[in-house]
Amino acid sequence: MSTEAKVIHSLVNPAPKPGADVLPSHKDRATGSTHYGDGDWDQEQPSEIQDATWGEVFQACCVHSSEEWGLILIGVCAALFFLYFFLFSLELLGTSAKVLGGCSAGGLFGDDTNPVGALVIGMLATVLVQSSSTTTSIIVSLVGADAVSVRTGIYMVMGANIGTSVTNTIVAMGQLGDGAQLERAFAGATVHDLFNLLTVGVLFPVEVITGYLYYLTEAMLPSSVADGDKWEGPIKKIVSPLASRVLKANKDIIKDIALGKVENCDAYYPTICLDGIEDYSNCASKCDKDEGEVVGVDCGRVGTITCDKKVGCPAFFQDGATQSDDNVSGGVCLFLSLVLLTLCLVGLVNVLQRGLNGMSTRIIYKATNVNGIIAMGIGAGVTVLVQSSSITTSVLTPLVGVGAIQLEQMFPLTLGANIGTTVTGLLASLVSDSVSALQVALAHLFFNITGIIIWYPLPFMRKIPLEGARALGKATRRSKLVPVIYIISVFFCAPLILLGLSAMFEQKTVGFTVLGSFMVIFIAALILRFVYWWKKQDGRASCFAWLDKREALKNTNATLPEDMIALKNRVNQLCEHTGLPIEEEEEEVTADPIKEVDVSKPEFDESKFHTEDEEA
Known about the structure:
about 625 residues, globular, 24 helices, mainly alpha
């Protein structure tokens, strides 16, 4: 390592200052066991962790004094409190996203498009509404209504699978304050992203060429589908009543725009409540056009914010609101949900850390280390209960951040969550009473099952998403901007570029086709050039060196005032030891101002200087 690299490393990872509390180390213990909270506990590799017995786990879990049980009860109550409002903030975040992006998401769906366009539409729609369950339900409904073909619907649910992982990636950013926690949390979040991206990368071209999922699910279809009831998970029943009192999104707008019933959201504004009474029957009840009912006379009208049958109209609902008013309300709720999400995340992590502090890592990993198949079953079961894979993975991400769950254990849990989220689409297909809708829902299920078969059973294949996630996690140590750049690049820039290219070819004109072909060649050349620079021209080292220098400069600026004070105190001590009158000199210098020197009139005689020099 060069001198410059050592200096940068010391600045990025500064040593503890004299007088600071030194955390214990496993080296100080006779047994050499690592405990949670040690200064070097997170440096222990999984292969180095010794195995514990279930007796030790039982003793650590259930053998406590009465005082300890009281503290455990307080900790559990605090964890449940923060967990409830964490789930509430996620629900409010998704609702706010639907209010803000519902009109745009509905406009994305529509007539059949090419496979790339359908993939990107499913991804962007999920990012906009912050829920793959909502997106897949809409896609299934559109297919059931013959507004979208089965093949297009299959590509859309592939994109929805990618878009769903943006939520837990945002949650991981809530641990920006601690570099080690951010590294683990971001790795735990992105392992879900990488699995979805890799699965789409493999199965998308296979589906385009062979129609694998289409023909597989077609062979499994019954002759008819019985009409079913809509099912709501128990967690939704607990969280939704409070969220519906704050904000409730009108999901019908997305479907109506996608089906072409209305062109845009202007048809829903301004909102109307009969006699100015804000409740469900006077504002959100639908008109029966067959009976000749008229909006504003026999029934009300709502926009992107609607009322609930049970709890009435939410706090942010407004009679006579315009689309701009609803967007402002959605934006305010989005901001509040992010603030509440961060506060609850910090509180939940703090409670977990206090509960785990001092516990041996052998005990922690023994208790959380279950068989991969069982972990998938747990992930699927929890997701069926909460009706959202985003909620499941978002709750697990902080646990990975604090070190309670290893990345190897997080991976099968997220795979199970992917399986569990397909239940929503299956239920939606039963409600739609359509064989085609059921085919798309089954394609979503077998897409995830096929991905698991490809990437999980074989250790060397499983290593690809795990190592990729670890690399992304380590990159956050170099710069806190990595998560932001990652989210913008993967979930916004890349999809928009692909959507633009696909739109060029959809025009079916020679000019746009030629332009699109040149753009594809140009982008492919840029990607190849970047890969060559990254691999062959030390681009990786140059990029990491720049990030290290930036982080070193940031750390230096953060500690500069404190370092300057310490340096001044040290200089004063040195002056006192040597007897130098530093204070007096400073006063003299202050009292005697520096004279302005006119460089055009030198103060010495140059000829005399030369003469004296020659005599010498």
